[in-house]
Task: structure prediction
Amino acid sequence: MTKQLWYKLARPDGYDFFTGHTINYRAAAEIKGIVRPPEAAASLGLCSSGVLHASQSPDQCFVRASVPCSVFLVEGTPVIPFDGTKAGFLELHVLQELQPENVFKWHYALAVNPVQPFRLPQHSPTSRDLQNLARWASVRGSVWHSIGDSLRASIWESVRDSVRGGVWAIVWASVRADVRAIVWDSVGDSLWHSVGDSLEAYIGYILSPVVERWKYVKHRKGAYPFMPSASLWNRGLVPSFDGKLWRLHSGPQAEVVWKGRI
Result:
């Protein structure tokens, strides 16, 4: 096999994901240096400490990585052939560090630093917000199946799991912390469910650039059908529906800033 260009993901500080302190890819990139595993041995197999992993595309690298991350362009000759997601190397020449925002086709910056709507200033909705609420109400019922199946067909499972898990962990924790003092009644219960629906729509928006067709919902080519919810989310407005009335919640205590029928 001849030398080829590959991609490698590391922790935000440049160290490998496997141990977090063994190999510093950022330090190697600064001198265009070569990195090697501490006990180099192809006989130990692909998923072992004896070889380094690299992939043909950045998204393939998420098998043992997560966001946030750093991205490196490397060169090497595989000693273990590419298996569809990664190949094994006894050494990698680290050519340069790349900016994740410029490498991934999906919205990396939002995956790392998602909008937390109840930490935005409280405000009342505009007429456009109410239009988005009406559009969201018309497609909300299909959001989970559509996003789950569409992403499954369009993006690597490891990317989907990393982004979804990371955003849920950040946002859900903040939601629980921001509204924990509220006494939840039936509206509160409906808000919890609605936050989950809206958060799933927001995650779909983060990954939407890599999806051409969203299943189970009609939409224009190239359009994200759940964008009305993501737009409300970005404005700090989260809907809830109790079966009769819609509400929009805003501010650090998720107060109702609008309610009515649509």
